[in-house]
Amino acid sequence: MSSYPLRAEALVTAMTARADAAPAAAVAFQGAPGAYSHQAVRELFPEAAPLPCVSFEDAIEAVQAGRCDRAVIPIENSLHGRVADIHFLLPESGLFIIAEHFVRIRHCLMGVGRQDMLRQVISHPQALGQVRGRIRKLGIEPVQYFDTAAAAAHVAGTGDASVGAVASKLAAELYGLTVFAEGIEDADHNTTRFVVLAREAAPLPDAGVLAMTSMNFEVRNVPAALFKSLGGFATNGINITKLESYIRDGSFAAAEFYAEIVGSTDDPAVVLAMEELRFHTKWVKVIGTYPCVRERTA
Ligand SMILES: O=C(O)C(=O)C[C@]1(C(=O)O)C=C[C@@H](O)C=C1
């Protein structure tokens, strides 16, 4: 898939200026106004000022530097898998996950003319991955852009009827585009999981509230190291819901992992399992315990 050569420079400049002047109560997200991350911010923090940022790094940096208190970041999608950048950035960020949130993503095909005039469609690579089948059937060339809403803004700005965008209905409204088709994602379950990042860890969820704990760890690169590290979760009846390995520092040894478990770090069974994990690993870093949202258990 090719990448679109143009960036909405004016939009990027405006977003950067806005980030520099953000009030602390603002909530940072990656993308232009009308991005799905913006929608997630509105659902989670209806009172807060949404702070659009050009990149994930910028959104994270706004929280690290204290320019705002929260960032809402997509980490995985039910159709297109993980948002790789974020899994790589999280361990480095020093921030904590304090909540998770699921958004059902409904994509629209939009433009300035008619649907049969479209030759190309531009959007965020994740969004294009979620509509791949439908776009192929329509015979339109998918082209990557840095954000769904910025793609909509770009199409509106050029007025080129041969280039459409895949973005939210909100983006179509904000940038004055015509929606040719709604709900064009390749599966009905198309849902993106967002996490809320903050400088401080959240207080542990009350007893009786189902909790999730996210962590990174590095195992020794020897046979059975991972098996032994995770043994405590099996013997203590703790459900591991996610386990992903990473290449770090150019090494293919892939001895670093990101894991999510069901349970809070003050749950006695989790305490025992974590002790065993610490014993068998080089280091463990817990990056948040937060309430488990129902979607995962459904
Ligand atoms: O481009 C956007 O609108 C975003 O908010 C980014 C993003 C993503 O990176 O996953 C968020 C939700 C959808 O899965 C598609 C794109």
UniProtKB/TrEMBL annotation:
Reaction(s) the record says it catalyses: prephenate + H(+) = 3-phenylpyruvate + CO2 + H2O
EC number annotated for this UniProt entry: 4.2.1.51
Keywords tagged on the record: Amino-acid biosynthesis, Aromatic amino acid biosynthesis, Lyase, Phenylalanine biosynthesis
Xref: InterPro entries: ACT-like_dom_sf (IPR045865), ACT_dom (IPR002912), Chor_mutase/pphenate_deHydtase (IPR008242), Preph_deHydtase (IPR001086)
Pfam families for this protein: PDT
Prephenate dehydratase domain boundaries: 26-199
GO terms (BP aspect): L-phenylalanine biosynthetic process
GO cellular component, one term: cytoplasm
ACT domain mapped to chain residues: 214-291
Site-annotated residues for Essential for prephenate dehydratase activity: 192
Pathway assignment: Amino-acid biosynthesis; L-phenylalanine biosynthesis; phenylpyruvate from prephenate: step 1/1
Gene Ontology terms, MF aspect: prephenate dehydratase activity
NCBIfam families: PRK11899.1
PANTHER family per record: PREPHENATE DEHYDRATASE P PROTEIN, PREPHENATE DEHYDRATASE-RELATED
Protein name, entry field: prephenate dehydratase
Natural source organism: Sandarakinorhabdus fusca
